[in-house]
Design brief:
Elements lengths: L31 E7 L4 E4 L13 E7 L4 H10 L4 H8 L6 E5 L2 E12 L4 E12 L2 E6 L7 H9 L9 H37 L3 H33 L10 H63 L15 H22 L4
Parallel strand pairs: 3-7
Antiparallel strand pairs: 1-2, 1-3, 4-5, 5-6, 6-7
């Protein structure tokens, strides 16, 4: 069975809007910050927050923050880039739905990086927040691991269009990287389903299969719950009229919309398979019960006439000649035995068992 995760209970009741309180369950550790500055010809990065780079024109600044427990650092970066206080609050409130908010100075994207723990069948979620403005993008990762190494490698090596485009394309690249990870999660769940199918084929209606079906259905439903609002968010990203988004980049945004739709179709297909497997499990269990009831019915049917014979000769009336016959006992037992064999033969011929 899966381990239950206990969410840290933090009440923000009564606090003014924009109050920065981390509501996640990660341990308090210093945040790791990587600052990158690049254009089509140059690339530079430092493993710290370099505020001075904000004053350099004609280059794209990307600040990547890993770890959200350092609220003072989040506030400093948010204020330096003029991120709205409500957006800063949403960055630290890690139980948000996927969404896209439009502000006067940029676009604010929230989505979730999802991974499957195959041992306990838990869906681990990490909130990702991206604020993209004119000539800058700031990304916030809840976990200290690096989810954007591939994007940073493309920027460092000048591969593709990343260094030729603006912050809207960088935001797209970050979102696309997370969405591509959903294909891996979809394949992991499919592997679990195939393993369960093989187990059901070999073991039939084993009780462990029922528990596994419900665990997989829980994971798939959680996955779908995360992606449904993301579908609306990426569609809004594609249709936005913000000046930040270049028309030449809308084809890439439409591609992300298609990917999310494909993943949702895959999730719905997996839900149908699990529903069919659950119905098959119940049918197998019903068949096993029917087989048991059939055997018990045959046994009961055989013993009913035998019980009748035994009951008749157990009445002990005086005028019962068979009671005084020397071979009466053996004759009755023989008749009862032959009657049992005859009924067994008849039931077997009818294929009742």
């Amino acid at each position: 069975m899966s381990k239950k995760k206990h969410r840290r209970k933090i009440s923000k009741r009564g606090m003014p809007p924009g109050t920065l309180v981390y509501t996640g369950d990660r341990p308090a550790n210093p945040s790791a910050v990587l600052t990158m500055r690049f254009d089509e010809q140059h690339y530079e990065e430092q493993e710290t927050y370099v505020r001075e780079w904000l004053e350099i024109p004609d280059s794209l600044i990307w600040v990547d923050v890993c770890g959200l427990t350092d609220t003072s650092l989040i506030a400093q970066i948010g204020d330096d880039f003029h991120i709205h206080p409500l957006a800063q609050e949403d960055i630290l409130n890690t139980h948000q739905r996927a969404k896209l908010d439009e502000y006067d100075n940029g676009l604010f994207f929230i989505l979730h990086n999802l991974r499957l723990d195959p041992g306990h069948l838990d869906l681990n979620s990490e909130q990702i927040a991206v604020f993209a403005g004119k000539n800058f993008a700031v990304s916030f990762q809840e976990d200290p691991d690096d989810s954007f190494a591939a994007v940073r490698k493309r920027a460092r090596e000048g591969v593709g269009r990343l260094r030729k485009k603006g912050s809207d394309y960088l935001a797209y690249a970050i979102v696309d990287t997370i969405v591509d990870g959903y294909y891996i999660l979809l394949d992991d769940i499919e592997s679990q389903i195939l393993e369960l199918e093989e187990s059901m084929y070999n073991n039939g209606s084993d009780p462990s299969c029922k528990a596994r079906i419900f665990e997989l259905k829980r994971v798939v439903n959680q996955f779908r719950h995360r992606l449904l609002p993301l579908r609306d968010a990426v569609a809004r990203f594609y249709r936005t009229e913000s000046d930040l988004v270049e028309e030449s980049n809308r084809l890439y945004l439409r591609d992300v919309v298609d990917h999310v739709a494909q993943i949702l179709d895959g999730i719905d297909n997996q839900r149908d398979i699990l529903d069919s497997m659950e119905a098959l499990y119940h049918a197998e269990a019903a068949n096993r019960l029917n087989d048991v009831m059939r055997v018990l019915t045959v046994i009961s049917t055989i013993f009913i006439p035998l019980s009748f014979v035994a009951g008749v000769y157990g009445m002990n009336f005086n005028n019962m000649p068979e009671l005084h016959w020397r071979y009466g006992y053996f004759a009755v037992l023989g008749i009862m035995f032959l009657a049992s064999l005859g009924m067994l033969y008849y039931f077997r011929k009818k294929k009742w068992f």
